[in-house]
Amino acid sequence: MNRDELFSHVQKFSEDQYSNEHRLNARIQLYQYCELKKDWHEWVFEHLGLTEGMKIAEIGCGTGVLWAKKLSEVPLRSEIVLTDASRGMIETAKGNIHDPLERFEYEIVDAEKMPWPDHSFEVLIANHLLYHFQDHKKIFSEINRVLVPNGTAYASTVSAKNYRELLFYFNIKKFKVLCFFCLLFVLGPRSFVLHCSLACQSIILAGQVN
Prior knowledge:
Blueprint: H1 3-17, H2 21-29, H3 40-46, E1 55-59, H4 65-68, E2 79-84, H5 87-96, E3 104-108, E4 121-127, H6 136-146, E5 147-156, H7 164-169, H8 172-187, E6 195-196, E7 203-204
Parallel strand pairs: 1-2, 1-4, 2-3, 4-5
Antiparallel strand pairs: 6-7
């Protein structure tokens, strides 16, 4: 199995994981065990620096939790497009965001083929998304294309110490054995993934064993 085949396999697995909100919400709940008690989505929102009149897009919006939690603080005259590759996620985001000002639009979008004209947005957000893509040059090129000159892209990802509290909470050796057998079951004995969440609910391609 070469790298492209492995990534295709993982993408299909990821599509199942994100077909609806249930598995994503389960992963989000894991952050209650973090040492840092500040809510992650609230922390991200507070660092966006949004101002009145901005045109904003979020790719990979998931359940819309970034906006639902801070709706009262969203600038009044904003234009916000929330997108996801999953129809299930888009429908969930619509249900979670109750905005009487109708500042939000919702679209099913492939982030590698964004449907908007050049220079459409002042801000583009990719929260815990970019590691799902193999061709980063392509997606960065698209992000650059749809942003206005001097626009801002905000991207977040997990660190090498992600879920470390859970590793200490549970028996680390048992956790490693569980991950090993889950990876064998999902990817086969020749492949491995360097990043996985608890019980391997989320698997992100990072390498291959020759």
